[in-house]
Structure formats: C-alpha cells, structure tokens
Write a structure and sequence with these properties.
The strands form three sheets. Strands 1, 2, 3, 4, 5, 6, 13, 14 and 15 form a nine-stranded mixed β-sheet that branches. Strands 9-11-7-12 form a four-stranded antiparallel β-sheet, covered by helices on one side. Strands 8-10 form a two-stranded antiparallel ribbon. 35% of the residues lie in helices and 22% in strands. The longest helix has 22 residues, at 293-314. It has two domains: 3-212 and 328-409, Zn peptidases (Aminopeptidase); 213-326, Alpha-Beta Plaits, CATH 3.30.70. It is α/β, with parallel strands linked by helices. The radius of gyration is 22 Å and the shape is elongated. The structure holds (2S)-amino(hydroxy)ethanoic acid and manganese (II) ion (MN) (2 copies). One manganese (II) ion (MN) binds next to loops.
Length: 410
C-alpha cells in the first residue's frame, strides 16, 4: 500500500476511547478524572500500557507529563503530538482523549505499515490541562514550555487543599526525565472543537490558526453574616448578593464589549450557605476570554471598576487573585496550512478556525512551530456528558494527524 493510502483503524480508535472513557465514568455519563486523582492515575496507567504495547519508549518528566517516543532513522528533534487525559468534573469522552488516543492509533498504523520516519515521533500526555483542580490550566505544558517554574508548580494548592507535588508523588508520576525532554521540531494537536462552528457549517476539519486569551480570577467577598429576618435591607453587607451581582455583570460585560468577548462565573461558594443567614463570605471564579489582548485587558479593567463600586455600595471587602492569564496565541502558518492541505488531500472539507478553548498547543507554540486539528462537536457541546463527535469525524481527524505527522517527520 502506498503511504498516501494509509488510514487509521476507526474501530480500534473507538475501542480505546471507550475503554478510557470507562475510567472515572459517573452515573450521569460523564468522565470525571480530575488531575492527579486516582482516576487520573488509572487513566495514565492505561495509556502507558498502550504506549509500551506499541513499542514506544515511555518517559515521565518531573511535572508528570508522559511521553511515548518512537525512534526515527535520525537522532534529531522529534515531531511531537498529544494532548491531555485529565478532565473536568462533567467531562466528555473526547476532550483531550482524542488527541492522545488518535496519536497512539497513528503510531500503530505506522508500526503495522513498517514505516520508519526520519525524525523521531513523540506522543505527549500533559499534566493538568483542565486546571479544574489545580490552576492554572495547561499547567503541565506551561511548565514544559518554561512558562512556570517547576518549584512554583509543585506548591500549587488545589481546590481541595491538596498540594500538587504531594498528589503527583502519591499517584507515582513524579518523573525524572529531562525538562523539557526535547525541543520539538513541530507540535500538532488533534482536538474536538468544543464549539458550534464546524457542526453548524457541516465541515469536517478545522485548521486552527489562533487561540483566544484567557483570564481567570478568584474573587473573595467579605461581608457580614446577619439574621435574614431581622436585618433591614439598608443595614446589610450581603456577600451572597455581591456574588449574584458579579454573575449578572458577566453577561452585561460580554454584551458591552461584544465581538469574541466571553465571560463566565463558573463557581460560587457562600458561607455559611444557610437559608436564614445573610452570607458573610463568598468566593466566586471568573473566566474572561477574548481573541484580542487589548480588549481582554479592557474587560479586566471594567470588571475591576465594577468590583470597586460594588464594594463601596455594599460595604463589603473584595479581593481578587489571578489564577491564570494567557495572551492570545497565533499558531504557525506553515503548520496550519499543512493541516489544511492534508485535509484537502484526504478529501475532507476544512476551514481556518480560532480556538475558544485553551489547549496544550498554546504552550507548545512558545517553543516550536505549532498548530491544531479540530473535528466537529455536535451542537458545540463540551465539558458535558452530552459531548459528541461522529466516529467518522474522529477518524478523519486522526487520518489528518497521521499524514500531517508523516509530512513533518519526513
Ligand atoms: O479552559 C479551557 O479552555 C480548557 O478546557 N482547559
Ligand atoms: Mn481539552
Ligand atoms: Mn477541556
């Protein structure tokens, strides 16, 4: 068979996706494998087993990133691919997992075809991409790319009070491989779109050219608990009201700025959280994103002003803590064009895309030419058990990955 006729095995890819999805499966059909939990460990162990079965040399670095290495005919910088297998609490079957298991399927096809590439190939499984338990998100690839010192990452305390380094050691993935293991010749990540564009336009492949900026903050509000029945409204310092006001302001801010601005209050905790007590304290998280750095800063400035006014009006103390802050990223045009060309050669419809979600590729873009391959998410749903991509589209994405990697690895 000629190389250009090579295609991945869809059934095998689906079987691996199903097997991994069973780890951390919850009653509502979600995948819950928060970073560095026992479920994450079980997923890691399964993937490492597959890597070994595929004859890949497995290396683990000090932040727990796992790499499966496939030798090339020359000992030069590898072409790297991969993604993440940690999930949010209500994760789907494909977010991150497709990029890792699609890459393993590519390795198996190359093995079966007896193909030796000039450059080595590396499949990366990056630690804590979601940032749901330990912020920031893309933590493992950020450390890999030199954007966060390892010691600082180790001290990160999760939403459950556990320290990152302790959890990494506990699950047995505090590795010793060099950090970074290699400076890739190029990096390509296969991922579901997690947005509605490809599905709405009936297209199969997205050649991702850029990725929007991300600003995560934790906002702590200190008011005064008081009796819900006896306290006149004019005397209240109600942290619960302030939390609700912030949630409402998110919608207002996004509408005011328009364009690609999005604003989300994802989590709210009230203390003491009782029906007849005016909340003394509240902690909320705020996620602001925009493709334009200046507009993202504008959104942050307007939000800061809003908080100052709210604190003055309600007589509460408000403090903010930055949890993640990444500027928008432009991927490598050459690699993005290669993705588009490859999709065309394989007969798949394709369009240039912007990524609304953060990805490990945005960190790898700091150290090597990088781009992404998107496949459609039905109705754009993700971070939700209803997350779905048609098997034919999953396979199409993996085929585009196969031939993009072959082109880059020579
Ligand atoms: O937040 C994100 O965009 C990604 O899912 N970590
Ligand atoms: Mn992801
Ligand atoms: Mn995600």
């Amino acid at each position: 068979m000629k190389v250009e006729q090579l295609r991945i095995n869809e059934a095998r890819l689906m079987a691996r996706l199903d097997e991994l999805a069973a780890i951390g499966a919850t009653a509502d059909g979600s995948c819950c494998r928060l970073a560095l939990t026992d479920e994450d460990k079980a997923g890691r162990d399964l993937v490492v087993g597959w890597m070994k079965a595929l004859g890949l040399e497995v290396r683990v670095d000090p932040i727990g990133n796992i790499f499966g290495l496939r030798r090339g005919t020359e000992d030069v910088d590898p072409v790297m691919t991969g993604s993440h297998i940690d999930t949010v609490r209500t994760g789907g079957r494909y977010d991150g997992n497709l990029g890792v298991l699609g890459a393993l399927e590519v390795m198996q096809v190359l093995n079966e075809a007896g193909i030796a590439t000039r450059r080595p190939l590396a499949v990366g499984v990056f630690t804590d991409e979601e940032g749901a338990r330990f912020q920031p998100d893309m933590l493992g690839s950020l450390v890999y790319a030199g954007g966060l010192p390892l010691a600082q990452a180790y001290e990160t305390v999760g939403i459950d009070g556990k320290m990152l380094k302790d959890e990494l050691a506990r699950i047995g993935y505090l590795g010793e491989a060099p950090l970074p293991l290699a400076r890739p010749h190029a990096f390509v990540e296969l991922h579901i779109e997690q947005g509605p564009v490809l599905d709405a336009e009936g297209l199969t492949i997205g050649a991702v050219e850029n990725l929007q900026g991300i600003s995560w903050q934790e906002v702590s509000i200190a008011g005064q608990s008081n009796h819900a029945g006896t306290t006149p409204m004019r005397l209240r310092h109600d942290a619960g009201f302030c939390a609700a006001a912030i949630g409402h302001y998110m919608r207002h801010l996004a509408r005011e700025l328009g364009g690609s601005q999005v604003a989300t209050m994802g989590s709210v905790t009230l203390h003491p959280g009782l029906i007849n007590v005016i909340a003394a304290r509240a902690e909320v998280t705020v996620d602001l994103r925009n493709t334009d750095e200046a507009l993202l800063q504008e959104a942050e400035q307007r939000f800061a002003l809003f908080l100052a006014q709210l604190a003055a009006e309600e007589g509460v103390r408000i403090e903010t803590r930055t949890l993640a802050r990444f500027a928008p990223v432009t991927f490598d045009k050459g690699v993005a064009d290669l993705v588009a060309r490859t999709a065309g050669k394989l007969g798949h419809s394709c369009r240039p895309m912007t990524s609304g979600a953060g990805h490990d590729a945005q960190m790898m873009a700091r150290i090597c030419p990088t781009a992404m391959i998107f496949v459609p998410s039905v109705k754009g749903i993700s971070h939700n058990p209803a997350e779905h991509t048609e098997p034919a589209h999953l396979a199409a994405g993996a085929d585009v990955l196969l031939h993009t990697l072959l082109e880059l690895a020579g």
